[in-house]
Amino acid sequence: MKKNQWTRIWGLSLFVMSVCTLCLIVSKLIGFELPDVVIRIVGMIELVALAIFSFATVSKYKEEKEHEKNFN
After folding, report:
1. Contact 71/45 with Cβ under 8 angstroms?
2. DSSP secondary-structure letter at 30?
3. 70 vs 51: CA distance, rounded Å
4. pTM of the model
5. CB-CB contact of 49 with 17 (8 Å)
6. Do the Cβ atoms of 51 and 4 come closer than 8 Å?
7. Which residues contact 49 (CB under 8 A, 6 or more apart)?
8. What's the pLDDT tens digit per position in 18-65?
9. Are 33 and 27 within 8 A, CB to CB?
């Protein structure tokens, strides 16, 4: 994949993790208790986004190293 594509995937997964975390934090701060099922679904979405974020970070790093290697 192109570096630009990995950057988009990386940014999107970071955004998803941020939105999930904010939803949980805001609901606790305003005192609104979310149902257990919703909390678990948001947690699973966040875990999937974390896995994608990790994979995209490593892929970006590898491509960057490969790019540097080709120019030296």
Report:
1. no
2. T
3. 29
4. 0.81
5. yes
6. no
7. 13, 14, 16, 17, 20
8. 999 999 999 999 999 999 999 999 999 999 999 999 999 998 888 877
9. yes
